[in-house]
Amino acid sequence: DIPIALGGPYVLPELGFPYEALEGNFVGSQTMHLHHDKHHAGYVSKLNKAMAQGNVDAPKDVKELVSHIRDLPPEIQTTVRNNGGGHFNHVLFWQWLRPGELRQPAQGLGAQIVSDFGSVEAFKSSFEKAGAGRFGSGWTWLIFGSDHKLHVCSTANQDNPVMDVDIGDCHGAPLLALDVWEHAYYLDYQNLRLKYMKAFWDVANWEVAEELYDKAKANPPSPVHSGAFHQCGFLQAIAVVGTSLAATMF
Fold this sequence. Notes:
By secondary structure, this protein is mainly α. Helix content is 49%, strand content 10%. It has helices at residues 29-54, 62-66, 74-97, 107-117, 120-132, 186-189, 193-200, 206-218, 231-249, and strands spanning 4-5, 11-12, 138-144, 150-156, 173-179. It has a three-stranded antiparallel β-sheet. Strands 1-2 form a two-stranded antiparallel sheet.
């Protein structure tokens, strides 16, 4: 894919498929245009501005950036957490939505889903419950943990499992995720988030999830303990909440 430059070290990737490709099965072209061209582009633009403001030598891979947030200048940590997280999440999200041939998990990932959850349907139910139960905005994830097991979890805002900040028990290697911010589905489903989540299974790209699973098994994530986070992690969380509340007021 040819990336779209936005005047900085990070770029907005092409969607990778026609905007109308998921029409009638998941979400329509209007949602896809707004989500990709406005929301994702906004995260990239704000992230690039933060990099310039902090005079940071930005790593090429945004995953490297958001997995070392605590190493950044304090004045840009919240911006990078929100917008670097948003960029990382959406780079993967478009791949997870890219129309593919495989409609169910297969091979190694499918076998471990059955082993760890009991069945594919039990996994889907757990995934839907985590997303539907997320108050406000966030994501629901399938991750490969440091214990070499699969887990379903949910994060707030644009937090994700690779971050080095306190996000609860959702640290690990992302294999599959769904954006449950309202901008991802409201034009198509209004307030029916669970209906949107169930429609996701009609378009989820299990080939990409399988590739990520193979990589995670070959290079498992390291354990992350919440007690190891500095006090600034707590203050960071307060700042993120404050930023989210302020955004709803204007």
